[in-house]
Amino acid sequence: MYNVVTLFINKGQKLPDLTLVLLSAGNSIRFNRKIKKQWIRIKDEPLWLFVVNRLKKFCNFQDIIIVANKNEISYMKNFADWTFIEGGNERQYSLKNALNKVKTKYVLVTDVARACIDKNIIDELIKQINHCDIAVPYLKPTDTIHYKNNFIDRNEIKLIQTPQLSKTSILLKALENEKLFTDDSSAVLNIGGKISYVQGSKKAKKLTFFDDIKSLDCLEFPSNDTFCGIGFDVHPFENGKKMYLGGVCINESYGFKAHSDGDVAIHAIIDSLLGAMGGGDIGELFPDNDLQYKNADSKKLLNKVVKFIYSVGYEIINVDITIMAQKPKILSFKQQMKEVLSEILQIPKFKINIKATTTEKLGFIGREEGIGVQSITTLKYYNWKQ
């Protein structure tokens, strides 16, 4: 006789009161690339989105919660309308933040590093939930195991995987503990909870080091698309202020009137970068009413944006800049600007083009009241398959 849970599986309907929690707030230090592993692209999807969409094919969820780095949440919202929660310093704290938002009886918790999860694992976990507090997939080791010069019976060893399906109330209770646990089942076991083990899959290998990606055969090549962004900025002159343009200090008796150092060229570049990645504009990231950016070095602002762009899965192809100025003369500073920008953008100088033009004495630029700069940037996805 089928119980309620089995009937839901066989009919392809959802398990009542089930929330998915995806942990994706890590810094990917062991991945050892400029890109964070949760942002590698599978076609056009970042890994965190790919994992969720894969799981959605196997099971319907009443709610989906993504635990993410606080600096990435705003950008993640471009991809999905789910609930996004700021992660903590440890996995356990991140999970507790998410569980405080879970309203369902059951919760399925998984790590973004488990990309190639099988439907069979999800089905087996759901079948077990009536018989335990948490259902967990595992693998048996095949190698001989020694620990501190002692032989361990490998038949007594379980290599624990995710996702793990828990009763929400039990998992919350288990995490009301200052002791740190590396997975949910360890916390539940610590309070005497009942665990059901199901056969895991070698395909659900965890992506920890970059070389691990070679064994994840469910991941397709990133798209070859390119992305173009346009940035434009203007600033009036201000007497008695240092002039910074394209990251270079230009010896003039005037600079730019601005909240920061007023480097109008770098501001245009930042906007073109953000435009290409769909990341908003410079005013959203560095508001001109925020005192921390008062007289800020624009090179540092650009460096922060570039690091973010690389971390979320892009590479910069080229940058083209047009400086519109009646004064000062730009020609003698172009190469120095290229050298500065090349280092920050992490691309060779030949992929940076700087053009200068006047406005034939027309408008505020022609009246020598300020400068305008336009920048065009092209990006592509980081190709981890190369």
What does this structure look like?
This protein has 386 residues and is of the alpha/beta class. It has two domains: 4-215, Alpha-Beta Complex (Spore Coat Polysaccharide Biosynthesis Protein SpsA, Chain A), CATH 3.90.550.10; 226-381, 2-Layer Sandwich (60s Ribosomal Protein L30, Chain: A), CATH 3.30.1330. Helices cover 27% and strands 26% of the residues. It has twelve helices and 19 strands. Strands 1, 4, 5, 6, 7, 10, 11 and 12 form an eight-stranded mixed beta sheet that branches. The protein has a five-stranded mixed beta sheet with strand order 16-13-19-17-18.
What would the keywords be for this entry?
386 residues, alpha/beta, Spore Coat Polysaccharide Biosynthesis Protein SpsA, Chain A, 60s Ribosomal Protein L30, Chain: A, five-stranded mixed beta sheet, 12 helices, 19 strands, disordered N terminus
Q: End-to-end distance, in Å? A: 52 Å
CATH topology of the largest domain: Spore Coat Polysaccharide Biosynthesis Protein SpsA, Chain A
> Kindly state the mean pLDDT as a whole number?
92
Low-confidence stretches: 1-13
| Strand-pairing-aware structural class | alpha/beta
Helical content class: 25-40%
| Total individual domains | 2
In one word, what is the shape?
Answer: elongated
> Any idea what the CATH architecture of the largest domain is?
Alpha-Beta Complex
What's the number of extended β-strand segments? Answer: 19
According to CATH, what is the class of the largest domain? Alpha Beta
